[in-house]
UniProtKB/TrEMBL annotation:
It comes from Pseudoduganella armeniaca. This is Phosphogluconate dehydratase. InterPro entries: 6-phosphgluc_deHydtase (IPR004786), Dihydro-acid_dehy_C (IPR042096), DiOHA_6PGluconate_deHydtase_CS (IPR020558), ILV_EDD_C (IPR056740), ILV_EDD_N (IPR000581), IlvD/EDD_N (IPR037237). The gene is edd. It catalyses: 6-phospho-D-gluconate = 2-dehydro-3-deoxy-6-phospho-D-gluconate + H2O. Binds 1 [4Fe-4S] cluster.
Amino acid sequence: MALHPVLEKVTARIIARSRPSRGAYLAHLEAARVKGPQRGTLSCTNLAHGFAAFPANDKLLLKEVKKPSVAIVSAYNDMLSAHQPFEYFPKVIKEAVREVGAVAQFAGGVPAMCDGVTQGQPGMELSLFSRDTIAMSTAVALSHNMFDSVLYLGVCDKIVPGLLIGALHFGHLPAVFVPAGPMTSGLSNKEKAAIRQRYAQGKATREELLEGEAQSYHGAGTCTFYGTANSNQMLMEVMGLHLPGAAFITPGTALRDELTAAAARRAALITEQGNEYIPVGHVVDEKSIVNAIVALLATGGSTNHTLHLPAIAKAAGIVIDWDDFNDLSAVVPLLARIYPNGDADVNHFHAAGGTGFVIRELLDAGLLHDDVKTVLGEGLRNHCKEPFLGEGDKGVVFKDSPAVSGDTNVVRTAAEPFSKDGGMVLVDGNLGRAIMKVSAVKPEHRAVEAPALVFNSQEDFMAAYKAGQLDRDFVAVIRFQGPRANGMPELHALTPALANLQDAGRKVALVTDGRMSGASGKVPAAIHVSPEILAGGPLGLVRDGDIIHLDAATGVLEAKVESKVWHARAQAQADLTPSHVGMGRELFGMFRHSVSAAEQGATTFGLPSARDTTVELHGGDNVGNTVPGSDEDFLAKKA
């Protein structure tokens, strides 16, 4: 099947605009590569420290400096359901790696926070910045230079992107990502959402709400809705960083353990010392990044990846922007309906065909690049598979994904999709640029023109809602929620209230420089508005009563205010001190001061460069200035 012309066009322009930084990245990768085990570069004292506590046989292999050492970098903690299963994975991994004559070492742990726990709490303001913290923690774990490949154990929202960003800064090392899998299905997502809406209306008690939540989130594994965590898993599959079909196998099962063991053996076999050297910096290239965008759109994935994918790409020297998402969304069909874009959970999706089905459909439609490297070698079509237990329940065998959907209410072919587009659009105008996810928004709600009601926090909005002040048509403008202001928290508390107002017949929409994530639902929401106010963005010029026009079909986001009046206004001010102190937020001041714009990934690191750049600025007190060699300078010149 010939590639779709839009896929070719977008890929070509990404390759062209990324050429300087991608070239620098690959040069750095080659410079870090060594012949033989990496630990061969260490002194005897260094090396002795690196294996001092190991069992005798493992110590002998490490001492001989002939066989590879596989690092384990894990996001384990036992409070978070998605990461609790990782407690016993290192034992499985070490035994599996020994089978192929190598050694596995637990290199380090990274923090893992749950947006579900911190939602609406001060800790949520650390959430986005935890991604770059995880990347830095990954670098610390690998800085000992003992390792020849890496197994990354992570699942949830910022954790997988953070691990991958860290991995790409060690791009000469092969990487295999190892998920824990989703928890078994509990209370349906539809019932859970209904309880939340009833609680917001005061028609359900707190006890009823808690019982509903507990029946939904009830055991070990990832939450089963298709939010950022499970979108992560889909992207790792289509980028070729998982073993095929690994994403949605539940924890605590024989197949999950055998997949983990198989991933460990594969990581040992693709090192520089083996017959196949597959460094992660070659797996993640321009084509695999485009594949990730396509898979996100085709499955109605999380809007958080309009932040994470640019950040991941940047770590590999690749520059993407929201125009790339928008152009691909116009031609990528929606093949899956998983909550919040449908009633099914990810277990139902897996049973109906799963990731391999979607990858094959997109390949056959010319909407994915097959000519990419994966952890299996050449060709993405190798990942159109589903794992099963081998003979005697030992090992893993991979079979072709089903040719026919098991449930056309959940997953469909590219010839008969749920919609002809990916349901994620770019809107822009005099309020800036923003992302809208409309795959769950009914067509009649995708355009709203109504007076603005301006709030500086979701708490202020909820206070007005509970006071009965919002029974009207309006566009809620929630400002000072960008990464520089307060770390760009998710604003989930708004969802039930806005949904209730829409259900009551009111025309409502949300415009914010904050995030809504994978839980973005049926209410039209322009999110990630850039530039944010602290970067000179125009959202700070909006006043109560201004008519806001938001239209997903035409891509418009504007305040209908006379130009002379608009430009005479002063930027709004807010005391952000409460968001900068307490719950450890004062430790993250450097992130708020150095973070890039949302469209550039909201990152605190720059693009790889071969130039001698002594200073890189990404904003802070230098808003509007560009420095030679900085991200802003490069992006100002991009094709």
